Amino acid sequence: MTDPTPSPGPAEPVPAAPPPDPSAALSLRGLWKRFGEKVAVAGMDLDVPTGSFFGLVGPNGAGKTTSLSMATGLLRPDFGTVGVHGTDLWAHPDEAKATLGVLPDGVRLFDRLTGAQLLTYAGLLRGLDRATVAERTEDLLAAMDLVADRDTFVVDYSAGMTKKVALASAMIHAPRVLVLDEPFEAVDPVSAANIRDILRAYVADGGTVVVSSHVMDLVQRMCSHVAIIAGGHVLAAGTVDAVRGEQTLEDRFVDLVGGRRESEGLAWLRSSSASS
Ligand SMILES: Nc1ncnc2c1ncn2[C@@H]1O[C@H](COP(=O)(O)OP(=O)(O)OP(=O)(O)O)[C@@H](O)[C@H]1O
């Protein structure tokens, strides 16, 4: 009897992807992910150069979170490979994950711990000794402007404070690569500037940062490299200057992705506001 379940892979044969680049911090090859009928990531190849500050941008539903989840060991690809500094993530997950710090989308934290306890827990879980954990916990609380709330339960943190403590948890083991899904969402401008400074210094010291963001201006100013993705594909990737050319990144993004609507829509909304 044949299996009635359709295969979750590509509908048509695809050319074999080139091997992963071992010199890249992250090297994605032929990544596919399908949820039922929905193909979220459709054969993605992407190299994140070591020491780059890499922005991943794309419209809602482009496949950013799905591809970052597969690139960090949170979601198993249907097909494809992920190299982390040359280590095959899905073949050697412990080795590869030890070098990764991850801020996932919609992160669920152990929120019945205080901020200080959560960082301590994250550090011990990563195998650091107690003295190192204590020192780094203090440094991170100060860097994220959370010292005054160190003994507040995370469940009582605001959205921005939660984001900051999650980011600190991702950094406590000094990973070689930081993968951050929307790290600045809900974070106040002063904290965002502090976090940007921390990330820039980390990259200057040889670390690699991958951020997904919808804020083109921020990506253009902050990142050295960018990939524009839509429909689960990479539309353009390279240095920010090479990708945007003579345009702003935002204009280049809109040109590539399309989807601008003429503004005649929702006429009922305008007439309703005029008549009230
Ligand atoms: N668990 C899931 N089950 C079903 N469909 C999913 C699931 N996760 C993602 N999808 C679908 O896959 C596509 C890609 O989603 P994904 O979250 O990766 O996009 P994104 O680029 O991160 O979007 P956004 O910018 O809105 O956060 C979307 O169409 C989404 O509906």
UniProtKB/TrEMBL annotation:
Give the main localization category. membrane
Q: Which UniProt keywords apply?
A: Antibiotic resistance, ATP-binding, Nucleotide-binding, Transport
Question: Is the keyword Nucleotide-binding in the record?
Answer: yes
Domain ABC transporter: start-end pairs: 26-256
Which Pfam families does the record cross-reference, listed alphabetically?
ABC_tran (PF00005)
Location of region: Disordered: 1-22
Q: Which PROSITE patterns match?
A: ABC_TRANSPORTER_2
Q: How does it sit in the membrane?
A: Peripheral membrane protein
Residues spanning the membrane = none
Range of residues in the leader sequence: none
Q: Which InterPro entries match?
A: AAA+_ATPase (IPR003593), ABC_transporter-like_ATP-bd (IPR003439), ABC_transporter_ATP-binding (IPR050763), P-loop_NTPase (IPR027417)
Q: Name one GO molecular function term.
A: ATP binding
Q: Where does it reside?
A: Cell membrane
Is this entry keyworded Coiled coil?
A: no
Which PANTHER family did the record assign? Answer: ABC TRANSPORTER ATP-BINDING PROTEIN, DOXORUBICIN RESISTANCE ATP-BINDING PROTEIN DRRA
Q: What is this protein called?
A: ABC transporter ATP-binding protein
Native organism: Isoptericola hypogeus
